[in-house]
């Protein structure tokens, strides 16, 4: 009976010793975990302090910037108000934008109408000037009894009559021309100068032609005289 109790106690002691060893191992592991946790907590505390210091520095910097920006915005607002007041005082008082657009449209219509009137007046003046030039040329060529300048230079009245006919035809051809409103007509002074140049060129063309004809006639007369003299000499020789 006693031996059974001793055996049971020994077994109990062994079981208790095993449990004690397991408990010691568990305590050792827990102590290691506690040490690691304390180290992590210390590191986290250090990092927190660093982040807090950085945050405080950043907040102070942003506060200073905000204050500077606020002052700058206030200064800009004052300058804007000052400029707005000055510009409003300098600008003339006008109506609304719609009224201004209506005024501009009326001004454009007035200028277009004035432009059409001036263009019509210019065409009338050109037609009147051309008519006056033609009438002036006809009045100069109307007296057929007096020889023209080209006829006086050539010494013949026939040349004067031909020149008058040619000039009259030229004037009639020019009088049929009407000013075109579609194409840009030359100025009246330039049109008059062109007319006088064409008439003057026609006169001198006739003069050169008649001078050439007179020269040919004189050459033919000289040749005929020479032939007559030669024939008379031959007749005398034959006799």
From TrEMBL:
GO cellular component: cleavage furrow; endocytic vesicle; midbody; recycling endosome membrane
Gene Ontology process terms (BP): endocytic recycling; regulation of cytokinesis
Compositional bias per record (Polar residues), positions renumbered to this chain: 212-225
Origin: domain of life: Eukaryota
InterPro entries assigned: Rab11-interacting_regulator (IPR051977)
Annotated region described as Disordered, given as residue ranges: 1-26, 175-195, 210-239
Basic and acidic residues bias (residue ranges): 9-26
Protein known as: HAP1 N-terminal domain-containing protein
């Amino acid at each position: 009976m006693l031996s059974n109790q001793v055996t049971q106690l020994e077994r109990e002691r062994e079981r208790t010793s095993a449990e004690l060893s397991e408990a010691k191992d568990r305590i050792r592991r827990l102590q290691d975990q506690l040490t690691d946790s304390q180290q992590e907590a210390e590191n986290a505390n250090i990092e927190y302090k660093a982040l807090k210091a950085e945050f405080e520095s950043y907040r102070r910097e942003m506060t200073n910037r905000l204050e500077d920006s606020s002052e700058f915005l206030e200064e800009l607002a004052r300058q804007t108000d000052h400029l707005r007041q000055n510009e409003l005082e300098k600008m003339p008082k006008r109506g609304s934008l719609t009224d201004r657009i209506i005024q501009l449209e009326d001004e454009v219509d007035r200028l277009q109408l004035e432009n059409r009137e001036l263009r019509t007046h210019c065409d009338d003046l050109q037609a009147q000037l051309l008519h006056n030039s033609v009438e002036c040329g006809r009045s100069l060529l109307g007296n057929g009894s007096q020889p023209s300048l080209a006829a006086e230079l050539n010494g013949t009245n026939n040349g004067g009559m031909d020149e008058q006919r040619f000039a009259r035809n030229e004037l009639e051809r020019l009088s049929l021309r009407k000013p075109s409103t579609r194409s840009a007509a030359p100025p009246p002074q330039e049109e008059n100068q062109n007319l006088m140049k064409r008439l003057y060129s026609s006169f001198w063309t006739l003069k050169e032609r008649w001078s050439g004809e007179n020269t040919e006639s004189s050459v033919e007369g000289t040749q005929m005289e020479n032939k007559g003299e030669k024939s008379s000499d031959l007749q005398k020789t034959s006799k």
